[in-house]
Amino acid sequence: MRTGKSERQLKAGLRVHVICYVVAHVVLVVVWWLFTPRHFFWPLYSLVAWGIGLAFHIKAVSSPSRRG
Which residue ranges make up each domain of the chain? Predict the structure, then answer.
């Protein structure tokens, strides 16, 4: 399925997604560490759930069918 976006635009979108993922999770881990370090590591839920979506995004951008 073609979206009409160039390879450069697709990679830029992926880069933004990765940066948002990293920044958001650094913030979540810092908040956990500051306020609830003795409790369950609750940022894990977001890391895994968002990580699955990010993995699909990476796969979609790097898919060989994308280049054809």
Answer: 8-67
